[in-house]
Amino acid sequence: MLGSILKDLIRGSAATTAPQTSARRVLNVGGGAETISIPPHYNGWAQVRLDIDRREKPDVVCDARNLASLPAGQFDAVYCSHNLEHYYPHEVTRVLSGFLHVLKADGFTEIKCPDIMSVLKHVAQSGMDLGDVLYQSAAGPITAHDVVYGYGKEIELSGQDFYAHKTGFTAKSLRSALQRAGFPAIFLFETPETFEVRALAFRVQPNAEQRRVLNLA
After folding, report:
1. 179 CB contacts (<8 Å, ≥6 apart)?
2. φ/ψ bin of 164: left (φ > 0), alpha (ψ from -120 to 50), beta (otherwise)
3. pLDDT of 19 strictly over 60
4. Cα distances (angstroms) measured from residue 63 to each of 21, 87, 89, 95, 172
5. Cβ proximity of 114 and 147 under 8 Å
6. Rounded Cα distance, 94 and 87, in Å
7. Chain centre to alpha carbon of residue 35
8. Helix/strand/coil (H, E, C) string of the chain?
């Protein structure tokens, strides 16, 4: 049932954004509200938003641990920003394996998550407390505690513990998780100033166009 619904959504998205034969498709896992933007290299792509929270009105309501229930090989990319840390460590491989499942043969996944190493270094070097403000975001002040354990305000207002952080990543541990899931080509980018680590992981070695668009060396 869910698979047929997703196929209809994909066909509808492609029809409204580009000719069905040429539109690339990105699955935005845990993307939240429709107003939240994704990187510009997805401009012109047909975006399908998947989220566990019905309040965000996603295209597909689904737990990312259950991506294997969706049709295989449907997407050119999976985009997952600040969502992977919401799963327990033993569940991460299952989620990432689901990314592989829905990707086309030459597809890739893009993951962003908090860089716990840079947060811990900053807290230790500055002498700040976990409850002190680490940085200002569009949603308001973010504390070190929010980054490590999840945005407290959102957890409290929603009453949903799936907004809590259940694991954390460094560049090294994120690479290891992607390797365990079966991704053979992985590129990591650390941005300590925003306390974030970003990964691009491919089912096969990236082609020339992917390297150009994604600024890979």
Report:
1. 186
2. beta
3. no
4. 29, 10, 16, 9, 26
5. yes
6. 10
7. 16
8. CHHHHHHHHHHHHHHHHCCCCCCCEEEEECCCCCCCCCCHHHCCCEEEEEECCHHHCCCEECCHHHHHHCCCCCEEEEEEECCHHHCCHHHHHHHHHHHHHHEEEEEEEEEEEEEHHHHHHHHHHHCCCCCCEEEEECCEEEEHHHHHHCCHHHHHHHCCHHHCCCCCECHHHHHHHHHHHCCCEEEEEEEHHHCEEEEEEECCCCCHHHHHHCCCC
Instruction: State the Cα–Cα distance between residues 211 and 108, nearest whole angstrom.
Output: 11
Task: Express each pLDDT in 42-78 by its tens digit.
Answer: 999 999 999 998 888 999 999 999 999 999 999 999 9
pLDDT score recorded for residue 22 = 58
Q: Half-sphere exposure (CA, 13 Å, Cβ side) for 113?
A: 31
Per-residue pLDDT tens over the stretch 204-215? 999 999 999 999
Under the banding of pLDDT at 50, 70 and 90, the label for residue 2 is very low
